[in-house]
Design a protein that fits this description.
Shape: globular
Strand content: over 45%
Order of helices and strands: EEEEEEEEEEE
Structural class: mainly beta
Radius of gyration: 13 Å
Largest sheet: 7 strands, mixed
Number of strands: 11
Number of helices: 0
Helix content: under 10%
Length: 125
Amino acid sequence: QVHLEESGGGSVQAGGSLRLSCIASNFMHNGQYCLGWFRQVPGKERQGVASIHSDGKITYADSVQGRFTVSFDYAANTLYLQMNSLKPADTAMYFCTAESPTYCSVTYAQFGSYYGRGTQVTVTA
């Protein structure tokens, strides 16, 4: 069973930085993996933020491109999301997610098959 546990959220002023972490287990699928992050604001649909495939392919939402960096420490089974130049529009609950490696992209409409409890990120103006 896939298990994902996020940490690192908090409140920060616009322009600041945060790093989210996610400890992942049982995420491999036929020798491959797809991990990532999505975010959600109450009353709105989830938005894929970043994805990383075991073959090295990474995708980002246009709104975070150039500001966010996703990475995975395979030895530590830990996924990271470094968020810089944060904006109030980035305020959301952030979820670590595992997806089928076949659909490893934030543009996949159903991105985020498995996810953790989430961690809140609040960016104040």
